[in-house]
Amino acid sequence: MDPTTVYWSPNYPAHDQQLLSVIHAIWYFVSGCMLVLGAIIAWTWLRWRRGAHDLFLPTDLIGVFYVVSGVATVTYTGKPFFWVFVVLGGALLLTARLMRRA
Question: What's the whole-model pTM score?
Fold first, then answer.
């Protein structure tokens, strides 16, 4: 799509394509968060029932998701703000790794 394209409909004023790309990125990020969090809750509950206390998979999933979605969002929108998610995900993965060694 051409980033200079402006969309118009009788119900809404014209929307800038760049604004729409950010809205789409946020929409998909939040949808992905809900899916990942649901999976984490189900997995944690099953592990808890079995008596496990080494629950690092949730942190790994969240960290990887933040890194991947951050890179994908920067690539899709061109907005450098979304590098924040890469930094946060990387920090989570690093701290979880350090905690495993403790």
Answer: 0.61
